[in-house]
Design goal:
With about 950 residues, the chain is mainly alpha-helical. It has a domain of about 200 residues. The protein has 59 helices and four strands. A two-stranded antiparallel sheet has the order 1-2. Strands 3-4 form a two-stranded antiparallel sheet. Helix 5 packs antiparallel against helix 6 and helix 6 packs across helix 8.
Length: about 950
């Protein structure tokens, strides 16, 4: 039977030679099949007196013992076998009681005879399933075969015997003890078993070998008994200490104390006694006495780690050990840190000072946030970072300040910046930033030093008033020269106080050629130093800007003392100034020109910029007064000039429209005239531009009018009239009064199309009636040669106009029009006829008779001047029928309305004067409606429309 790793016996397959054979004399029992290996046994249920788990049926018991029926207990083993069993102290009566357990007892006895008593344990455990009492007796018999020692002692103890019989987990450890009674590791394993611990502890004190071994490592049997559940860890701790693993031993002591807190003092004393003298000496260097060690408790392993690291000069590791010890023993750790400080070399002066300062130590042992910073002090590469971190901790700062100032490296760093350790102390909350500034200046990192100085000034506003002169004296010569170039004298720089960082940033930026940043930082200094210094520095710096493009604009504005004074002192302008200096110069300057307070000053300053005025001159802008009138839209005018140059007239008109809205009339006139020159449009277009000027900023208006004049330049009549129509419709939707002016301006278009708009009263009526869209549609369709479509639009317009004014009543019925409506209708159709080119009118007259005959007309100019109301009633019916017809034909409705108008006019006094023209117009309209093709050459027709 072999011993497995878990401490149980592995069953070995029986060979054929060992199987039970018939023998002379009493029959030997047949061996039961092997029981499964003990390391595979499932957790056992409580057993009964028969050795089986409670609740097992006979069949299950039989299955446990094997499928072969047991031999009757009356059968006895051979004499030779009985002699073997006597080695286990078993009698014939015991053998009779053994039953199915007999084969296992036989194997146990054989293992003893072969010198393997530890293997006998496994067989006896197997026997205990069937005969627990016999197996227990055999176990005690086994003890008699062992030499004197702990093994024999334990096997003769009833409690231990019962555990060994039922607990396979103990076999391996017990086997080790039988082989070597002084094996404390095996003893520790037995003590780790909760069931066997008390029995084992009661027996160890009676074994001389074990007792001697315990004494060698510093323990007594009673110590283990007292330790109880802590005994395994205690034994382990003393073993490690005796082997030289002091830290591991102390960690095991800590675990033992946690298991048996009531024994902490006694265990501590035992541990101290067991420590090597060299280790005690290390603790003494930290100022820790043996008495303190006895009560150190959980801190002891960390204290040892610190003491051991200190003995090797590993100061950072020593501190780490102490900071962990501080969790459970803050007072003792405080003392140990002082002891550590005494051992530190001179180059660690800051750490040495800090760890001997009582106020700082109180913070360190209770504030874990400080630990990482203090830990950095022991590494030259991170020492300054650690010092800076301590200054940033509000709780530790005051305690750290004086100690840090004693550090030679810190003193040298401060001296390079013109500072002293007391300056850090006086800086208080600003100390971390002052430290950063000094460190950066000392390392030549000027920008970082200035930034840190800014933070120091924010934390302690008066600080730089005290330190400014000394700091300035240590600045690099190049930076001081740059500040002089700003126009700031050394005496003014010393007065800067809180504004010093801004001036330093300005000087640094100027040295790098970044004028915008320089001026921005000067502006930031305003309010921190006297305004006169800032204003002088801004004008001096601005004078260095290149006099071209946008830099020239900034130079013109920022070299004017009056304007700069306003920019510095007027809070309303600060946002605009910042925009101008942060890269958005145009928007910032636009807002400044738009500010009523500084508009005049800014405009006259910009008027001195020849390059700027040269860009505006083509648009009629002549002086500062014009600029002031334009305000911020001056930049829109500049943009329009660039867009014209790029061939984008529509976009240019939109940009220019932003400037033409609210300016004096004479300036608008000049600008419109200049615009006409830019667009290369005929003289007559000036009024059209002027009428639309205030609305050019509208995206649709500006684009459409730009497209119109662009088409005019190309000779594209259709495109020109389309653009004019789109412009007019958009204006009518947004500004009706402007729409009337725009319609009137179109009357100056040469050619026949201008006549469509020359009746100003009719233009106003069209806008008021909402019919103006149709007149523009008519103009656009005429431009395409669509005379019939244009006539339909005129009919729509005429119908809308017909309903204006007071309405007639015929035979007691009110008609949908009156004298004003008839007159407007007549005038509207008259404008349309007049708008047709002369060639087309002649063609209409020539074709009138032929088309008139086909249309059923009597005579074009004579439509029957009916003089009685009966005829008027008939023509009224025709109008109603035309209105009800689907689909509706606007021209049919207009013609029917016109005929009704003629009939009514014949009986209404005062209207005879318009019946003749109305007759001619209606006749012409009917001819146009019936004609299939009246235009002929479209291009010739278009030229006639616009006089080309």
């Amino acid at each position: 039977m072999a011993i497995d790793k878990a401490g149980g016996s592995k069953p070995q397959a029986p060979s054929r030679s060992s199987e039970a054979k018939p023998a002379q004399g009493p029959a030997r029992p047949v061996a039961a099949p092997a029981v499964p290996a003990r390391n595979q046994v499932k957790p056992q249920q409580p057993k009964g007196r028969d050795g089986f788990e409670r609740g097992m049926t006979p069949a299950q018991q039989q299955q446990r013992l094997g499928s072969t029926p047991a031999v009757a207990p009356t059968q006895a083993p051979a004499a030779a076998d009985r002699k073997v069993l006597e080695k286990l102290g078993l009698t014939a009566e015991d053998v009779q009681k053994a039953g199915p357990a007999l084969p296992h007892l036989q194997k146990a006895a054989e293992s003893v005879l072969q010198g393997h008593p530890e293997q006998a344990l496994g067989h006896l455990r197997d026997a205990a399933f069937a005969a627990p009492e016999v197996a227990t007796k055999a176990l005690k018999g086994l003890a008699q075969n062992l030499p004197p020692g702990l093994g024999r002692t334990l096997l003769t103890d009833d409690r231990v015997a019962r555990e060994l019989i039922t607990n396979a987990g103990l076999h391996d450890s017990f086997g080790k003890l039988m082989r070597n009674p002084t094996d404390t590791g095996a003893l520790r394993e037995l003590l780790s078993n909760n069931s066997a611990r008390d029995a084992v502890l009661g027996a160890v004190g009676n074994d001389p070998a074990v007792k001697g071994q315990l004494e060698r490592i510093g323990l007594t049997p009673q110590d283990l008994v007292d330790a109880g559940a802590a005994a395994p860890k205690l034994l382990e701790a003393f073993e490690k200490i005796q082997q030289g693993d002091v830290k591991g031993g102390l960690e095991s002591v800590q675990a033992a104390v946690q298991a048996a807190p009531q024994l902490a003092a006694k265990i501590g004393e035992k541990v101290v006694n067991a420590l090597p003298q060299s280790v005690k000496a290390q603790f003494q260097k930290l100022g820790i006495t043996e008495q303190q060690l006895r009560s150190a408790g959980p801190a002891l392993p960390h204290l040892y780690e610190a003491a051991d690291a200190a003995s090797k000069g590993d100061w950072g590791k020593a501190f780490n050990g102490l900071r962990e010890a501080a969790i459970s023993a803050p007072d003792l750790t405080t003392q140990a840190m002082k002891g550590l400080a005494q051992q530190l070399p001179a180059q660690l002066g800051a750490a040495k000072s800090l760890l001997t300062d009582d106020a700082f130590l109180r913070q360190v042992v209770t504030n874990r946030d400080l630990h990482s910073q203090v830990g950095k002090l022991f590494n030259e590469q991170t020492r300054m970072e650690g010092l800076r971190g301590l200054l940033g901790n509000d709780a530790a700062r005051n305690a750290a300040l004086s100690a840090i100032g004693k550090d030679p490296g810190v003193q040298g760093m401060l001296a390079k910046a013109g500072l002293e350790p007391k300056d850090l102390v006086e800086a208080g909350a600003a100390a971390p930033h002052l430290f950063d500034a000094a460190r950066s200046f000392a390392d030549g990192k000027i920008n970082e030093g200035i930034d840190a100085l800014s933070k120091a000034a924010e934390a302690a506003p008066e600080l730089l008033n005290k330190l400014g002169e000394r700091l300035v004296s240590k600045l690099p010569e190049g930076l001081r020269n740059n500040i002089t170039a700003l126009g700031i004298t050394p005496s003014e720089l010393i007065q800067a106080g809180k504004g010093l960082p801004d001036l330093l940033k300005a000087g640094q930026a100027l040295g790098q050629g970044d004028f915008q940043a320089a001026i921005t930082n000067l502006r930031n200094a305003a309010g921190k130093i006297p305004p006169s210094i800032v204003e002088k520095a801004i004008t001096t710096t601005a004078a260095k800007l290149p006099d071209n493009a946008f830099s020239g604009i900034a130079r013109s504005l920022l070299t004017d003392p009056n304007l700069v004074h306003q920019l510095v002192t007027n809070p309303e302008l600060h946002a605009s100034f910042n925009k101008m200096m942060s890269g958005d110069l145009v928007q910032g300057a636009r807002e400044i020109l738009g500010n009523a307070t500084v508009r005049d000053a800014a405009a006259h300053a910009l008027a001195q910029n020849a390059g700027f005025m040269e860009k505006l001159k083509p648009f009629g802008i002549q002086n500062g007064a014009d600029l002031a009138a334009l305000g911020g839209t001056a930049f829109d005018v500049m943009e329009a000039g660039a867009q014209f140059a790029q061939g984008k007239p529509g976009e240019a008109l939109r940009s220019l429209g932003k400037a033409l809205g609210d300016i004096p009339p004479d300036l608008r006139g000049r600008m419109v005239g200049a615009l006409a020159d830019k667009l290369h449009v005929p003289e007559w277009a000036g009024d059209t531009l002027a009428a639309a000027a205030s609305l050019l900023g509208n995206e649709q208006v500006g684009k459409a009018l730009g497209d119109a004049f662009g088409a005019l330049q190309r000779g594209d009549v259709g495109g020109f009239l389309s653009g004019i129509a789109t412009t007019g419709k958009t204006i009518a939707q947004t500004a009706p009064e402007a729409a009337k002016a725009f319609l009137n301006s179109l009357s100056k278009i040469p050619g026949s199309i201008g006549r469509l708009f020359e009746d100003h009263e009719l233009n106003a009526a069209m806008v008021d009636s909402g019919a103006v869209t149709n007149i523009f549609e008519a103009a656009e369709k005429l431009g395409r040669g669509d005379v019939g479509g244009a006539l339909a639009e005129i009919a729509e317009t005429g119908t809308a106009l017909l309903g204006q004014g007071e309405h007639f009543k015929v035979a007691g019925q009110e008609l949908p029009f009156g004298s004003q409506g008839i007159e407007n209708l007549t005038r509207m159709f008259g404008r349309f006829v007049d708008a047709l080119p002369e060639e087309l009118k002649e063609r209409i007259a020539t074709e009138a008779a032929r088309f008139g005959a086909k249309a059923g007309l009597k005579s074009v100019p004579i439509l029957g001047n009916i003089v009685n109301g009966v005829s008027a009633i008939g023509s009224a019916k025709d109008l109603v029928d035309a209105i009800r017809a689907e689909p509706k034909d606007a021209l049919n409705i207009a013609l029917a309305a016109g005929q009704l108008g003629l009939d009514v006019a014949g009986v209404v006094p005062g209207l005879n004067s318009i019946t003749g023209p109305l007759q001619a117009i209606l006749g012409t309209a009917k001819v146009v409606k019936g004609a299939a093709d009246l235009i002929g050459d479209v291009r010739e027709f278009q030229r006639g429309l616009v006089g080309f």
